[in-house]
Amino acid sequence: MNFSSYFATPDFQAFALHLLISIETPIHLFATFCILFKTPISMKSVKFQMFNLHFWSIGLDLGISLLTIPYFLYPALAGFPLGVLNFFEVPVRCQAFLLGVLIGLLGVSIVTILENRYYLLFGVRGHWWRHFRITFLVLNYVIACVYFYPAYYYVPDQKQALQEVFEMLPELPKELQTSKIFVLATDFRFIVLPVFFMSTLLLLESGIFTFLIYKNMSAQSKELSLSPQTIKMQKQFLRALNIQTCIPLAILLIPLCYLVISRVFLIYNQVANNFCFITIGAHGLFSTLIMLYIHIPYRNFCVDKLCSKVPGFKRRTSRVVQLFGSL
Question: Mind telling me which PANTHER family this protein's record contains (predicted)?
Answer without folding.
Answer: SERPENTINE RECEPTOR, SERPENTINE RECEPTOR, CLASS H
